[in-house]
Write a structure and sequence with these properties.
By secondary structure, the chain is mainly β. About 10% of the residues lie in helices and about 40% in strands. A three-stranded antiparallel beta sheet has the order 1-2-3, with no helix packed on it. A hairpin with a 5-residue loop joins strand 4 and strand 5.
Length: about 90
């Protein structure tokens, strides 16, 4: 199974919301909210044609063709970048 890697950035996916998708053997996306007021509920639907989705014990989801894992959607993580920036300065 061929592996794909790269980064895609969707500026203004919604007003004040940017989405960054990165993939290699795993998939990770980030939603960046310009202001707290821009936060919202985001629901994504997937149709992984030819792949079976399995929820992992850690909350992630692996997608495979039955023989090989195509990629893994890691368990969701939430953080406040303002707090992260302050911690990185200490």
């Amino acid at each position: 199974m061929a592996k794909t890697q790269g980064t895609v950035r969707y500026a203004e996916l919604f007003p004040g919301v940017e989405m960054i998708c990165q993939t290699d053997s795993r998939y990770m996306d980030s939603f960046v909210f310009a202001e707290p007021e821009a936060s919202r509920t985001i629901v994504r639907l997937m149709n992984p044609e030819g792949l079976k989705a399995v929820r992992e014990k850690d909350g992630g989801i692996s997608l495979s063709d039955g023989e090989e894992t195509a990629f893994v959607l890691p368990a969701p993580v939430l953080f406040d970048s303002a707090e992260t920036s302050e911690r990185s300065k200490s």
